[in-house]
Amino acid sequence: MKFTHTTRSLKGELTVPGDKSISHRAVMFGSLAEGTTEITHFLRGADCLSTIDCFRKMGVEIQEFQDRILVHGKGLHGLHAPASILDCGNSGTTTRLISGILAGQAFSSELTGDASIQKRPMGRIITPLLQMGASVESLRGNGCVPLRIQGRSLKGIHYQSPVASAQVKSCVLLAGLYSDGVTSVTEPALSRNHTELMLSYFGARVTAEGTTASIAPDPVLCGASVKVPGDISSAAYFLAAALMVPGSEVLLRNVGINPTRDGILRVIRSMGGQVDILNETTAGGEPTADLLVHSSSLHGTVIEGSLIPTLIDEIPVLAVLAAAAEGTTVIRNAEELKVKESNRLDLMVDSLSRMGADIEGTVDGMIIRGGRPLHGTVIDSHLDHRIAMSFAVASLTADGETDITNAECVNISYPAFYEDLAGLML
Ligand SMILES: O=C(O)C1=C[C@@H](OP(=O)(O)O)[C@@H](O)[C@H](O)C1
Ligand SMILES: C=C(OP(=O)(O)O)C(=O)O
């Protein structure tokens, strides 16, 4: 898809699609609940549709309407053995969370995914699941999918996770629903806490203190109404675009600003960017607000440590923003980006430098000396939705033509992304 620099400014308002993490969890926990769960503003991206597909294969009736999804829950012990292999598509969240659920079932199952998922590390969930007494096998012996999981009764553990990962934490907590005692996870820094919030909203006994979350086994989960907030990870592209393109002002309505996800807002503030937070409210434990963003003159910053998990998926577009800012931005402790849909560290360094940015890769991040003009070129998205969207934003300030290959991969998390971006362009 080709982008040429014709934008003078971005103006208007937009409601971004529902949060991907929360949409996945609403389908999963709704399936394990008694009664019906109604989900509004559900993200109809390919990843969340993979989650729906997996639970339908285990006997859950899930109805899709224009404005809502109804999940007719089976209860904690009501899933059926799937007749065929569960296909998690491109979704790490589906793969890792569902594994925790499958580990405690009274049946065996197999799961797989696309070429990217087949390379992503699953050892990080296999290790704690084996400690809980689960039977999980990587069928090719490489620590990746396909996995075969023979469900069994599990024992509660305390898991000290080596990575700050909500997918690992959630996998262990979900297996904890099927264990013989309390299960807890401590992580090196707090990752997104949507699992903790939503499971307790559905009636589970979950406690959270610092970087430790614990769950008591065998709760009765009750179907509930879930209003999914707009995804801050999707809003991030418009925040960056409006900050960078002079004369812009954009209102993003109903965006989730959970403090475990709002690192981008803190970074924007530290770069001198102006984002007003309006109409704050909370639903199902999840805070949301309208974000009014104005183009701003930006300077470099440091992004590291416990901030990283709160903006992990936004680092590609933050690199674009840093290239537009004056001065140096240093990103550290972001090695997790190497094991996402693509190696996002290498791809950002390579492609942004080909556009003319002064950017250098480090072992766990990058150093960006901002302020150089960008030039359009061919950008390989490597079928990674966040890379495609980040370079669509970069193209707004680049001269010439930016040509993004396989740009349609945005359908993973934001099917209408290009239309929504075009709708704001003057
Ligand atoms: O739990 C979740 O919904 C997610 C957690 C993060 O992954 P990790 O837990 O692997 O960091 C994030 O990158 C992903 O987009 C969604
Ligand atoms: C890493 C991502 O998702 P997942 O891990 O679910 O594939 C993402 O959406 O950027």
UniProtKB/TrEMBL annotation:
The keyword Oxidoreductase does not apply. Pfam families: EPSP_synthase. It is found in: Cytoplasm. GO terms for biological process: amino acid biosynthetic process; aromatic amino acid family biosynthetic process; chorismate biosynthetic process. Residues 7-421 form the Enolpyruvate transferase domain. InterPro entries: Enolpyruvate_Tfrase_dom, Enolpyruvate_Tfrase_sf, EPSP_synthase, EPSP_synthase_CS, RNA3'P_cycl/enolpyr_Trfase_a/b. 3-phosphoshikimate binds at residues 20-21, 25, 165, 167, 313, 340. GO terms for molecular function: 3-phosphoshikimate 1-carboxyvinyltransferase activity. It is an enzyme of class 2 (transferase). Pathway: Metabolic intermediate biosynthesis; chorismate biosynthesis; chorismate from D-erythrose 4-phosphate and phosphoenolpyruvate: step 6/7. Phosphoenolpyruvate binds at residues 20, 92, 120, 167, 344, 386. The active site is at residue 313. Its main location: cytoplasm. It comes from the Bacteria. GO terms for cellular component: cytoplasm. It catalyses: 3-phosphoshikimate + phosphoenolpyruvate = 5-O-(1-carboxyvinyl)-3-phosphoshikimate + phosphate. NCBIfam families: aroA (TIGR01356). Belongs to the EPSP synthase family. Catalyzes the transfer of the enolpyruvyl moiety of phosphoenolpyruvate (PEP) to the 5-hydroxyl of shikimate-3-phosphate (S3P) to produce enolpyruvyl shikimate-3-phosphate and inorganic phosphate. Monomer. HAMAP family: EPSP_synth (MF_00210). This is 3-phosphoshikimate 1-carboxyvinyltransferase. The gene is aroA.
